[in-house]
Amino acid sequence: MAREPRAPRVVAELGRPETPEETAARKAENSRKHRQRQTTMNLVYALVATLAVVLVIVLVVPRSDTPMEPDIDVAATAAQAQAAVSAPLAVPELPDGWRANAAEIRRSEADQVTAWYVGYLTPEDEFIGMNQAVDANPTWVAGLLARTTATGTTTIDGIEWTVYDNRSTSDDVGNARYGMTTEAGGTTFVLLGTAAPAEFGELAHALTPTIQDQ
């Protein structure tokens, strides 16, 4: 006995059976939404996989508590820079705990002064910048020291240094919280930074042989 053909399904939203065109459109839309969901899920899976790789790298790669600061070979840099300065460049011998984070020849276009500069980080993690210049002028020195006024003098190894103590001032003096200057044989030495006077004295003491050679 032959089966009777099934009546077309009535779509609730339409209140009637779908036309062939509506059926095709519905299937096409369902396919589009399916592909869209698959694409979104693939992106989520890729993101999760990327985060997992990053996490593994963070956990596996060893980390050090030592600050990532450059360790400059002052002596080697001075040997290369010596041709730019007529006076012997200072390479102070400092005890353990001192390290240099910069060493270079600097040229002040405004004052036409060429200087040997070394930036030191002290054992107390403070900063002292050492500047050595031949035929420097007062304007250059004043600029380095934020145009502050000398507050006294100190003698180290028989060498007199002029002191600029700006630690109690409310003015913005940058790194010139404390400074020391001296001259020898036409060469000017300027120390400035944020370290305590005792650490400035330690650096000045290490500079004594160079100052005496000027």
Describe the structure.
With 214 residues, the chain is an alpha+beta fold. The protein folds into two domains: 10-60; 74-212, MucB/RseB, C-terminal domain (Phosphorylase Kinase, domain 1, 2-Layer Sandwich), CATH 3.30.200.100. Helices cover 34% and strands 27% of the residues. The protein has four helices and nine strands. It has helices spanning 20-60, 74-81, 138-144, 197-212; strands at residues 10-11, 16-17, 99-108, 113-121, 127-134, 152-156, 159-165, 178-184, 187-193.
Main CATH class of the largest domain: Alpha Beta
N-to-C SSE string, H for helix and E for strand: EEHHEEEHEEEEH
Taking all residues together, what is the mean pLDDT? 86
Query: In CATH terms, what is the fold-level topology of the largest domain?
Result: Phosphorylase Kinase, domain 1
- The quaternary structure here is single chain
How many domains would you count in the coordinates? 2
Structural class: alpha+beta
Assigned CATH architecture of the largest domain? 2-Layer Sandwich
Beta content = 25-35%
Globular, elongated, flat, extended or rod-shaped: what is the shape? Answer: rod-shaped
Radius of gyration: 37 Å
- Total number of beta strands: 9
Distance N terminus to C terminus? 123 Å
Poorly predicted segments: 63-68
CATH superfamily of the largest domain: MucB/RseB, C-terminal domain
Major sheet size, sense and barrel closure: 7 strands, antiparallel
Give the proportion of residues in helices: 25-40%
Total helical elements: 4
